[in-house]
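Quick note —
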Amino acid sequence: MVKPAPMSIARALFSAVAWAVQPLVRRKLRRRALAEPGYGVAVPERFGHYQPADLGCEGRGRWVWIHSVSLGETRAAAILLKALRERMPAMRLLLTHSTATGREEGGKLLHEGDLQVWLPWDSLGATRRFVSQFRPAVGVLMETEVWPNLIAVCANAGVPLALANARLNAKSEAGALRVGLLSRPAYGALAAVWAQTEADARRLRNVGARVDAVLGNLKFDVRPDAAQIAQAGQWRAALSRPVLLFASSREGEEAMFIDALKALGDAAAAVQWLLVPRHPQRFDEVESMLGQAGFAVSRRSRWGAMPPEQSGAIWLGDSLGEMPLYYGLASAALMGGSFAPFGGQNLIEALACDCPVILGPHTFNFSQASDQALQAGAALAVEDMSTGLSQALGWVARPDRLRAAVQCSRQLVQANRGAAVATAKAIQALMNAP
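Predicted structure written out below.
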């Protein structure tokens, strides 16, 4: 029997606060559910109550538990899961999330015998109920999710818990160091940490983690949906103008895009512009913004057999799970989250679809991949939206440069593949460790 580690004063205070704010968490979930109904699903699970009472007990000691907080982490988990199932065909997956978009995407990954639930709020009681209910054979947190009580409860219960595809930017490192009495024991109690890059490994060690290996970025192993790529190719060949994409736009960035597009004047009509907001609850809001700015809008959900070509109209990508289609349609993409200080979005999926990217000044969440793409010639960096649109139009006007950027994208993705197999091997070894 594993002897429980004593609770520090810092974690005791954190636990008290986590318990006290549960009513506020419930209220927040109710409010979010008004815009995103997924947040109203199975709310008791958020607090460690899984119904019926014996749910998951038949898999105790055998679950391979993966936690992917949101959409991006779930897509990375999908890549890892493919490699895991090839090595362990009989594995039973316990998949947890924290956001509605993550849970919706994660539902597509389940096989017969798998289970999907919410990860509980990090109160001591909720995490104890979760671990007692399922007792996983191994747990894998994707990328950045470090919760003090969850990690401590797993360690006390003898459940090996790893941080996979781990990344830590300088801002998060500074934040972790400020609460070192709480974060350092949490990072230190992880059974394994597999970092994306040497820079991530250095920062993770600095906050108390024992980094076992640098295995690369799982997202380089992405294989775009072949049917979507084929559909995009057919549409692209039939269109009279090239398509330029603003992908995964965030709050405030659409206004920048609209202003820059208006400033271009007639030059903007040389291409078809496609805008895909990051969050689905903002589709209607973004359509309204475009309409108020004087643009006609054509939503993906209303397309027929072909996207409608209409002078001056903006296409609005209002679907989930179709980023390969959008990237396949586009000659190049401006990367959302990088023009306002959100830290950027995953650019690797675009490169894997032969879509070179233009990055704004804020890429701290994906700094290593961004630097690699820039050095390889698969991306361009700009200081503002206006310059970004001009650079995108410049690529379209120079097909030789665009073809070179596409080739660089292919080479970069190919050269960095292999993290999924390496991580799957490491998880299997952790499961079999004495």
